């Protein structure tokens, strides 16, 4: 009887240890001597987050990175379930996740490369930088300066227009990062020996080039909207103010949806716009809180520093939470529009 109990205990111990070590590779563990739990359940994402904190990114950039990593974590956990169920046989989803991860690293300057991805345009690249050139792209700067001096926009409308220009600039930058990752993949692809592996990678590369084409089409349409806005100004019947929401609405109108579907989506986008505006407000407050904390730290009053640090930490956490919810909602809306549009095209 004693021997039987010992055997059972050993089996349970081995089972617990095996489960422990298999989970430890990918799930969150206590970090440091204080036993605090880490932010992500996947080890590589925690490594990126710890590196970002050492790099001392601005508070807003940190919040944006945290939400991007949370989205990446959610997608990777979903993919793990797909893999267990035998889905994603051709590895397309896995390749997309790897690409998304590389884009995150490059976007926040964490890919170990000096960022030489300049913003591309149809204009000459060796243009002289002038005072008032704030978008690092001659076409955008020319449009912005023309709109600013046209007298067609109120101060509030200029702020909205500037957000659209900044959003377009960010999209160009992300496109160039994506193009860079595809180029590097193609270099690796050239060295493939196995024909079967070559076929799989050919499929992945084809998908990436398709993604690039779609993104380039979106960029061209986005620039055309900016050009029209800069010349004609905002119309009274403009549906939305926020660039991300406008982008989704324009995509929905191109998706061949019914009037009822568009009306339903318009209402959902109004709610989403409120969320985007709230997120922007939190970003501004976080930046102000960080500036105040730096000022207080310079004065050296420990009690004052502690109070401001607590306020800053609370605001940083809330900003990260808002950023994640906003990006997750945008991802869901984008998928919904694409799915509905595809269903209509198949009918």
* Mean of residue pLDDT values: 78
Tally of distinct domains: 3
- Give the structural class: mainly alpha
Instruction: Report low-confidence residues grouped into runs of 5 or more.
Output: 14-30, 116-131
Number of strands: 2
Shape: globular
CATH overall fold name of the largest domain:
Receptor-associated Protein
- Which CATH architecture of the largest domain? Up-down Bundle
Strand order of the largest sheet: 1-2
* Number of distinct helices: 10
Q: For the record, give the distance between the C-alpha atoms at the N and C termini, rounded to a whole number.
A: 69 Å
> In sequence order, what are the helices and strands, one letter per element?
HEEHHHHHHHHH
Largest sheet: 2 strands, antiparallel
CATH first level of the largest domain: Mainly Alpha
Proportion of β residues?
Answer: under 5%
| Range of helix content | over 70%
What Rg is obtained from the alpha carbons, in whole angstroms?
24 Å
Your description of this structure?
Residues 4-115 form the Alpha-2-macroglobulin receptor-associated protein domain. Residues 248-275 form a coiled coil. Pfam families: Alpha-2-MRAP_C, Alpha-2-MRAP_N. GO terms for molecular function: heparin binding; lipase binding; low-density lipoprotein particle receptor binding; receptor antagonist activity; very-low-density lipoprotein particle receptor binding. The chain folds into 3 domains: 40-108, RAP domain (Receptor-associated Protein, Up-down Bundle); 134-238, Receptor-associated Protein; 240-341, RAP domain (Receptor-associated Protein). It has 10 helices and 2 strands. It has helices at residues 2-26, 43-55, 59-84, 92-107, 138-148, 155-190, 195-232, 243-254, 259-299, 302-346, and strands at residues 30-31, 36-37. The radius of gyration is 24 Å and the shape is globular. Residues 14-30 and 116-131 have low confidence and may be disordered.
